[in-house]
Amino acid sequence: LKDQAKILTKLDFVVLQISKKDFDGFKKLFHRFLQVKGPSIDWAKISRPPEDSIQPYERIRAKGLPEDIAAALNRLVVVKLNGGLGTSMGCKGPKSLISVRNENTFLDLTVKQIEHLNKTYDTNVPLVLMNSFNTDEDTKKILQKYTHHRVQIHTFNQSRYPRINKESLLPIAKSMGADGEGEAWYPPGHGDIYARKEYIFVSNIDNLGATVDLFILQHLMSQPQDKRCEFIMEVTDKTRADVKGGTLIEYEERLRLLEIAQVPKAHVDEFKSVTKFKIFNTNNLWISLPAIKRVHDANALDLEIIVNPKTLDGGLNVIQLETAVGAAIKSFKNALGVNVPRSRFLPVKTTSDLLLVMSNLYSLDAGSLTMSKKREFPTTPHVKLGSSFTKVQEYLRRFENIPDMLELDHLTVSGDVTFGKNVSLKGTVIIIANHGDRIDIPAGAMLENKIVSGNLRILDH
């Protein structure tokens, strides 16, 4: 009993220390929030980044790889941001545990990618998962299944901050414990990854295009020591679907990430313009570990605060004070943007995205998804599934199997619609079942440049 009491006392002490650290971090963030009045950006000081500060990926790739790329890989750590839940897709628990392809979850695919690297090049690239208090317990349980895989997996927890009442600006949590008060707390974005100790490759676990790129890694490692690039942000060309994504600008002679939340209302349309701001941040980041330590020790990591308004289930309006990992680019030397192909940005935020990655548009090899060679155009089709498809279970119930989409350009589905086996979709397909109607697309159907509406039921007899 005495030993158990000692263990409990140690555990309580550890929990207390973590809570104290979280509280100190929140206090600093909240203090900064109270001091900042109005937008943190003076729009008149914004300019496009200099030409040489955003390199085309093709130029980096053209340099090729050395014979001993393994030496560079052995100096790399892969960090995946794993703090999000699957609630927006109707799933309980961590989003990384949703099956996305051939029964593989986001986490399975990540482990397979890194294991493939380690086996191919005989290296030891570890995987570090940055969990949140929402995902930590469930993720740790599942990690046991990877014990015999050739990849070392480590986890750490991002902070836990209290949500603030929008009117009173007071925390809505009544105590330090999260029991029964889950809604009162939130993980404050991924800017606090820097508060934990050559390079890390950081990306969102739900971006299936964010694999370790040997050419970018080699570019980092091949620079002379005094000109070492301490921070690379992968950006890609903006389309109309990405107008809200953060972009790179030059501000006070530094490369800086500009998020839509920082833009004065009068300039939001200008920010969304595809002609002025042509690229956006994929959140695939390559960062020097010694530089992180230097910046952190000097307390020079001044990340802009993102005020994220939310409405809780009971109707209470709250705000979350967040920071973004990419915002740190301004604090690092010789920072660079690399304009990568769209294939490195393949996020799965909705079931519309899920349909794309589950389809024959992509081939799966060693955990990596690549556009099928049978697709004539390199662009991804635009898919918009209606509210009947929002939840993963409901979405899966509506497809007997995933349609052939190799020649699809655009798909819109709205209302009570189901798809039979071996359906083929080509060109632009719009299927709309009005309220009270139902459309069953029959097995083997081929729809090319079609609009389907009204009522279509196919019943067994």
Automatic annotation (TrEMBL):
Q: Keywords, A to Z?
A: Nucleotidyltransferase, Transferase
Q: For UTP, which residues are the binding ones?
A: K95, Q158, G189, D206, K349
EC class name: transferase
- One annotated GO molecular function: UTP:glucose-1-phosphate uridylyltransferase activity
Q: Which GO terms describe its biological process?
A: glycogen biosynthetic process; UDP-alpha-D-glucose metabolic process
EC number from the UniProt entry: 2.7.7.9
Q: Does the keyword ATP-binding apply?
A: no
Q: Which reaction does it catalyse?
A: alpha-D-glucose 1-phosphate + UTP + H(+) = UDP-alpha-D-glucose + diphosphate
Domain of life, source organism? Eukaryota
Query: Does the keyword ATP-binding belong to this entry?
Result: no
Pathway assigned to this chain's UniProt record: Glycan biosynthesis; glycogen biosynthesis
Q: Which residues bind substrate?
A: H190
Member of which family? Belongs to the UDPGP type 1 family.
Quaternary data = Homooctamer.
Q: What does this protein do?
A: UTP--glucose-1-phosphate uridylyltransferase catalyzing the conversion of glucose-1-phosphate into UDP-glucose, a crucial precursor for the production of glycogen.
Q: Identify this protein by name.
A: UTP--glucose-1-phosphate uridylyltransferase
Species assigned in the record: Neogobius melanostomus
